[in-house]
């Protein structure tokens, strides 16, 4: 059976943008970040979404957005917890207006907002995107494009904030080569003690200038990039080994266990020991297959959620219509009773 894992392209103007849509079983923390904006919908179960130390407790139907280059992780809180995800580049907005305002995505729905119109529209549009891959017709491609636009529009209106356009974007190829060299060095040597002076010497720039071009190009300071690399690797070891926490801290470049605890708590809102205690056998087993095994299109949870997400708008409209009808009926009877009372009083 085909997996629920699709990639497609959207052309706007003369530019082509890649978009991904997939569903998978959520396990333990896998700390990551990427260039894309990520929209995650809970298809089944409950999970924690952590970003920059902030924790969102999400239930079925809830939606969370992770910004481009924002470090984040998810943790299943129930068995059979499934996430449905859409990735799109924030640069897709350039296809509409290159001089546009910049946006940052952040936030999640909860019990008060998960049934609002925008949330229902996002869920329904995700279903339409997936169903558009059932055949290769022109109609399906048009539906896919429209559904993608709807999600992006709803995300801008309900999950994004604006910032001023940065007109000093780095375009010099020499600087870009220096950034690539620094990132390669950090990726290979993050376990070692690395200072700003070390990477400045590597590319032959002044430390202050090195720090500036790295932050402008990558979107985060070099120290934060280095910490994310260390946390990502250390988190995997926490769930996959029986090593002492102090040993893991030193293995992955942290100066001591206190530094590791502080960094972990800042990112995930709890200590490494509390996180390790929260893991069960099933969560760890699922995690071993993290984004390697995707949901199949005949999965019972997907089929159930697809039906609910598709028809929830119609159910709500019908319920609202019934409420309106009842209110009208009550008013009619109230008027009749008032009229009878007036006549009786006269009599």
UniProtKB/TrEMBL annotation:
Any coiled-coil regions, as ranges: 316-343
Keyword list, A-Z: Coiled coil, DNA-binding, Transcription, Transcription regulation
SMART domains for this protein: HTH_ARAC
InterPro entries according to UniProt: Cupin_2 (IPR013096), Homeodomain-like_sf (IPR009057), HTH_AraC (IPR018060), HTH_AraC-typ_CS (IPR018062), RmlC-like_jellyroll (IPR014710), RmlC_Cupin_sf (IPR011051), Tscrpt_reg_AraC-type_HTH (IPR020449)
Classification via PROSITE patterns: HTH_ARAC_FAMILY_1, HTH_ARAC_FAMILY_2
Domain HTH araC/xylS-type: 180-278
Molecular-function GO terms, alphabetical: DNA-binding transcription factor activity; sequence-specific DNA binding
SUPFAM superfamilies: Homeodomain-like (SSF46689), RmlC-like cupins (SSF51182)
Pfam families in the cross-refs: Cupin_2, HTH_18
Protein name: Helix-turn-helix domain-containing protein
Phylogenetic placement of the source organism: Bacteria, Bacillati, Bacillota, Tissierellia, Tissierellales
